[in-house]
Design a protein that fits this description.
- By secondary structure, this protein is of the alpha+beta class.
- It folds into two domains: 37 residues; 85 residues, GMP Synthetase, Chain A, domain 3 (2-Layer Sandwich).
- It is built from four helices and five strands; from the N terminus they run βββαββααα.
- The protein has a three-stranded antiparallel β-sheet with strand order 1-2-3, with no helix packed on it.
- It is elongated.
Length: 143
Amino acid sequence: MIEVQVEHLGAVQFEIKARQHAIACDQPPENGGFDEGMTPPELLLASLGSCAAFYAAAYLRKHHLATQGTKVRVTADKRTAPARLDDFHIAIEVPTGLDPKHIEGIDRAVHQCLIHNTLLHPPTIAIEIHAPTLAEEAVNLER
């Protein structure tokens, strides 16, 4: 199981923790934030891009090709009804010239990306709300 924890810090800022790592999530000033971290949609694109980069670099390494300087750019459009991202586009730039065999190989490798496949095959999502009852809260205040 993979786990992250998200804690509200105030305003529209959150701290996201996974293992011993922490990153900030915030909004730009026009959305009431301080622009001190990526927004949730940017984090999703970052997750997809870094996963694609991992698989592209793994392919390059396996075939003894240069990996340093590999870059990935991910874009998506916002949609409504319901609010979501759509039309994702992943652009991979490698530091060396490649023959068509290796370009196809990188494409196949990136299609194995966990995040890419998660988005293509939507997961089930369960939401649980944990909150004390009003009676429990009153007892805690009396203590």
